[in-house]
């Protein structure tokens, strides 16, 4: 691998460029007109404008990205997260053009991207799944019949979903009848696929995911779990590891199930297998697999010292995986710093950063593309930075997090720094007893 097209923007593009440079790989960045002069364009060896600000006219254009890759002599493409990272047709197109896709095979993306198929694939590998419909339900009548047998509440989920889009809880038949067309409508508008399926809703759960790495030689390894339960409307805001909710037996079983799931789909590259831990039964259930690098991957990197993006590049280049069960040291927490006004319903806050001063010091890492004077465009995700803090144990990590958040200064746009300061003052967060509904119930 000699030259890499980074088919993304923001902090993940910066992260990929740095990992590639460490490996001696040249990089080509792409940018829309809204991102002219953005940090990732200045760090890459070369940067090419690919269109106007709207993502469908720039970052989501398969044809333009492949044209740039070929014109600049790239031999590989890294999609980052979001945008085209879980687009099986893009992965296949990269391969068809004789380029290396830094990610899993297109078939694995396709199977795991269809949540109904994914359930069947992993269930066949003895991975427990939440009781649900046998694939997509054809109409509201079929959904009602499933709910009558399984019992309420139930959860409607988009087959091609992610990020909570198309997901709705129904507490009774009347609510299910109202929610079904709305869920299909939202799924169709967001993913171009209005297929939905139904699961039994578990009210008291933790969301725990396992980081896996797999190569093209049949080796699959895992690097432990991350707890992603502090969410708002199914959007993760804070992640930590190890999970305060797991004991050693549960952790061992969870990680083993994740490896089985990755093997079942013929996975290669970095990915995460996501589970719900039902606090009432102490059982865990598969919900989905993210076939890409995760926003929260630095949590695992801080615990293990493993560069996950570098391993993505090595695996894509054909190197065998030499990692599995790397010992985790201490405790790590990641805070997503978004340009949002959390006191006003998390309203987006685009604009110009008049000040941006991240914290530093022992055990503190900040992954960002932001700087004073940078523009936060309204067209994309509002992530400004990720603050990742490490401590010898959870107590130290929490104390260091409070110090780091106090040092974090953002001006010119609203940010979620204050939200995270508030969170760390809450007893359920301090003692690690929060659930996925915690933040929704309080904001």
UniProtKB/TrEMBL annotation:
A Pfam entry, by short name: CPSase_L_D2
Domain ATP-grasp: 119-317
Keywords associated with the record: ATP-binding, Ligase, Nucleotide-binding
InterPro entries: ACC_Biotin_Carboxylase, ATP-grasp, BC-like_N, Biotin_carboxylation_dom, Biotin_COase_C, CPAse_ATP-bd, PreATP-grasp_dom_sf, Rudment_hybrid_motif
Gene3D superfamilies associated with the record: ATP-grasp fold, B domain
Domain Biotin carboxylation per the UniProt entry, residue ranges: 1-443
Presence of the UniProt keyword Signal in the record: no
General function of this protein: This protein is a component of the acetyl coenzyme A carboxylase complex; first, biotin carboxylase catalyzes the carboxylation of the carrier protein and then the transcarboxylase transfers the carboxyl group to form malonyl-CoA.
Protein's name according to its UniProt entry: biotin carboxylase
Phylogenetic classification of the source organism: Bacteria, Bacillati, Actinomycetota, Actinomycetes, Pseudonocardiales
């Amino acid at each position: 691998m000699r030259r890499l097209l980074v088919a993304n923007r923001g902090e993940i593009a910066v992260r990929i460029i740095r990992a590639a440079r460490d490996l001696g790989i040249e990089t080509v960045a792409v940018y829309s007109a809204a991102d002219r002069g953005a940090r990732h364009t200045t760090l890459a060896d070369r940067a090419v404008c690919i269109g106007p600000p709207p993502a469908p006219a720039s970052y989501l254009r398969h044809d333009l990205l492949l044209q740039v890759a070929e014109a600049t002599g790239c031999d590989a493409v890294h999609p980052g997260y979001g945008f085209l990272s879980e687009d099986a047709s893009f992965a296949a197109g990269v391969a068809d053009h004789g380029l290396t896709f830094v990610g899993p095979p297109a078939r694995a993306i396709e199977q795991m991207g269809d949540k109904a198929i994914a359930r069947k694939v992993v269930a066949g590998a003895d991975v427990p799944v939440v009781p649900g419909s046998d694939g997509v339900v054809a109409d509201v009548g079929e959904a009602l019949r499933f709910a009558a047998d399984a019992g309420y509440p139930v959860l409607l989920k988009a087959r091609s979903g992610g990020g909570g889009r198309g997901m709705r809880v129904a507490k009774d038949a009347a609510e299910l009848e109202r929610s079904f067309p709305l869920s299909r409508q939202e799924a169709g508008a967001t993913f171009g696929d209005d297929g939905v399926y139904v699961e039994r809703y578990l009210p008291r759960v933790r969301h725990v995911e396992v980081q896996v790495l797999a190569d093209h030689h049949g080796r699959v390894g895992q690097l432990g779990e991350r707890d992603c339960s502090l969410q708002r409307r199914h959007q993760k805001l804070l992640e930590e590891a190890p999970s305060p909710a797991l004991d050693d037996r549960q952790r061992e079983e969870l990680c083993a199930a994740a490896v089985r799931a990755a093997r079942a789909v013929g996975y290669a590259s970095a990915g995460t297998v996501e589970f719900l831990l039902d606090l009432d039964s102490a059982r865990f259930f598969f919900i989905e697999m993210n076939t890409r690098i995760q926003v929260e991957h630095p949590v695992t990197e801080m615990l293990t010292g493993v560069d996950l993006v570098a391993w993505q590049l090595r695996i894509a280049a054909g190197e065998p995986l030499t990692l599995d069960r790397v010992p985790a040291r201490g405790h790590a927490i990641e805070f997503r710093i978004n340009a949002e006004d959390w006191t006003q319903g998390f309203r987006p806050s685009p604009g110009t950063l008049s000040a941006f001063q991240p914290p530093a010091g022992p055990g503190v890492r900040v992954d960002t593309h932001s700087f004073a004077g940078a523009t936060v465009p309204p067209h994309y995700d509002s992530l400004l930075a990720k603050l990742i803090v490490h401590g010898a144990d959870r107590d130290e990590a929490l104390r260091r997090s409070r110090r780091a958040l106090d040092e974090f200064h953002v001006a010119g746009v609203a940010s979620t720094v204050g939200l995270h300061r508030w969170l760390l003052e809450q007893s359920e967060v301090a003692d690690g007893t929060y659930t996925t509904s915690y933040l929704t119930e309080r904001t």
